[in-house]
Design a protein that fits this description.
There is one protein chain. Helices cover 26% and strands 24% of the residues. It is of the alpha+beta class. A six-stranded antiparallel β-sheet has the order 3-4-8-7-6-5, covered by helices on one side. The protein binds zinc ion. Zinc ion (ZN) binds next to loops.
């Protein structure tokens, strides 16, 4: 009986630690200090539901669902929440993943954190100004950087012809 209780207690501790680890992954962004900070109800009000789910809840849009996959004009891709210019059309490429992909960000545009949503570490990418979750960075991109910024199109807005400078 005692053994069983210990076993249950052990399982509880494990669940707690696992929970904390998950919270930790999500909190890296939420706890950060950003230039633009709003409470949750305000984000819900100004963002569409799909934008809110990606930018604030770190969800991932369905691959192939963003019209920005096919955007080939010159311009800047800005944060859908705060309009900070994040990527230039010059660094966009077709990664065939179904998500808009870039091999480089604009200067001082994004920050990264490590997340464990899939239980192995990934480099999470968010807007450095408002903390909105954008997507992930992988190291299988094309030259010259070898990086692939795999970004949810719903987290971006496209500004054609705008000067893609920070
Ligand atoms: Zn932003």
């Amino acid at each position: 009986m005692v053994d069983r209780r210990l076993l249950l207690a052990g399982a509880g501790v494990f669940a707690l630690l696992a929970g904390l680890r998950w919270l930790d992954g999500g909190d890296v962004v939420a706890a950060g200090s950003f230039e633009i900070q709003k409470d949750d109800s305000e984000w819900r009000r100004i963002l569409t539901k799909p934008q809110y789910e990606v930018l604030r809840l770190h969800r991932t849009e369905i691959p192939g669902s963003s019209p920005l996959n096919h955007e080939t004009r010159k311009g800047a891709f800005v944060c859908a929440a705060c309009e900070l210019a994040l990527f230039s059309s010059e660094t966009k490429y077709d990664s065939r993943t179904g998500w808009p992909s870039f091999y480089q960000t604009l200067p001082d545009a994004v920050a990264t954190a490590t997340d464990y949503v899939l239980l192995f570490p990934r480099t999470e990418v968010h807007c450095r100004r408002c903390g909105g979750h954008l997507g992930h960075r992988f190291e299988d991109g094309p030259p010259p950087t070898g990086l692939r910024y795999c970004i949810n199109g719903v987290a971006l807005a496209f500004k054609p012809d705008s000067i893609a400078a920070s």
